Amino acid sequence: MEPQVLPAALAAHAPALLVMIPLIMSAPAAMIKNGRVAWAIAVLSVLASLVLAAEIFLATRADGAIISYAMGGWEPPFGIEYRIDALNAALLLLLGSTGFLALMFAGPSVADEIARGKRSLFYSAFLICFAGLSGVASTGDAFNLFVFLEISSIATYAIIAMGWRNDRQALTASFNYLVMGTIGATFFVIGVGFIYMTTGTLNMADQAQAIAAMNGNRAVEVGFAFILVGIGLKAALFPLHQWLPNAYAYAPNFVTTFLATTATKVAFYVIIRYSYDVFSVHTGFVSNAMIWVITPLAIAGMLVASTQALFQNNVRRLFAYSSVAQVGYMMLGLGMATSLGLAAGMLHLINHAMMKGALFMALGAFALSYGIRRIEDFKGLGQAMPVTSAAFTVGALSLVGVPFTVGFISKFYLIQAALDAGWWWAVAAILISSVIAVFYVYRILVAIWVTPQGETDKGAPRRVPLAIAVPLGVLALANLVFGVYADPIVSIARAAADAAVYGGVTP
């Protein structure tokens, strides 16, 4: 790997370091009782991972190279391989960027929601979660992927439960997620076992070669089905999404912001990797799974979850159901099994992180100032917190798909891919889901901006802490900048889609 940002000696170990730094630094973060110091450790650790991710991203973009890193010097398939191409390099950069911005917001959010004596443990658990997600995005070993999935999941259960100080339902939400997550992990590891039993290797690149040579095998197909169910649950694919609304609604605001921008995206990546790389999406079994399972569930999720969002009064819960619908958009692109469709799905993955990052961060600012969650309590926010309300509005309009926002770009490419595939009914589903989104977003924006003078008790305008204003401003601006000048994000999504098929075939 040619160095782009870092010295060669450091760049050579970048794939391992971006996972190991946050994982190792979680220990001192837990031992130091000062929450601010623990926060600083978390910020520096994630920043280091972001720099390393940028190094890897630039290296893969320079010549389309695939970076192979043998942990401990043990060459695959005997050792664990970290295998990074343009697909997971883009995901690692997204993880680092959103993780860093979320941590800027964490300072005031955690101080308000997490008990003083638990803050260092909270940041330690966050670092473990971040390391686990980074590991999932980096590894080329199937069992190592399972281990990292569980590392991130267990830490996530903990940081959701720590929201009990503000709402005891955080404990119930965490337990529900734990049960569902354990079921998903069980399905995944059973699937890994079936494939290992048949191929004799855990290295995903070697598995791809062995599966291609088999030309169809029932045990391998059963393994794929188990993996699809297990990761579908982690990705909140409809109807396996039941854990997500409560988790987003009752977790600490910082946790919801971070999870909304990362967790389901990493699970979506795993489905791509197995569908297009370990397996070939154009083999009969996988192709049928895309057409008859993934695509119908994606469209059902887009329509049903959007409709459920209409009837929510808790705004965080509303946008949680919206996230389930957005997962449907991503899965629809995946299910098309075309280069353009997958690129559109990846584009929506990136853009959705910007949309929901801005929305949930703004909701966190509203909660920090007024402790509000219900739509009727949003009356007058446009007068009391005009800048934050404007940033929220940008994210909401982007979610709907208004022109000159990233949401419009995503939906444009999804519609184009659907038309190219002759899927007019998918175009109809995208448009119907978007119209439904207009209605639930309209309810909130009317409450914020169209409240008659004197009908609000919000008082004088509130100043938002700089730690919230800066990352929120960055995300809101990104929604507009990349909605007007979309070429960089589209280019990344196209490169990621091309890289996704180095073990499969994209027409």
UniProtKB/TrEMBL annotation:
Location relative to the cell: Cell membrane; Membrane
Main location: membrane
Cellular component, GO, one term: plasma membrane
Protein's UniProt keywords contain Cell membrane: yes
Domain NADH:quinone oxidoreductase/Mrp antiporter transmembrane: 141-436
Transmembrane feature ranges: 6-25, 37-59, 86-108, 120-137, 143-163, 175-197, 222-240, 247-271, 291-311, 318-347, 353-372, 384-410, 422-445, 466-486
InterPro entries reported in the protein's UniProt record: CPA3_Na-H_Antiporter_D, ND/Mrp_TM
This protein's UniProt keywords: Cell membrane, Membrane, Transmembrane, Transmembrane helix
Membrane topology: Multi-pass membrane protein
Protein family per UniProt: Belongs to the CPA3 antiporters (TC 2.A.63) subunit D family.
Record protein name field: Monovalent cation/H+ antiporter subunit D family protein
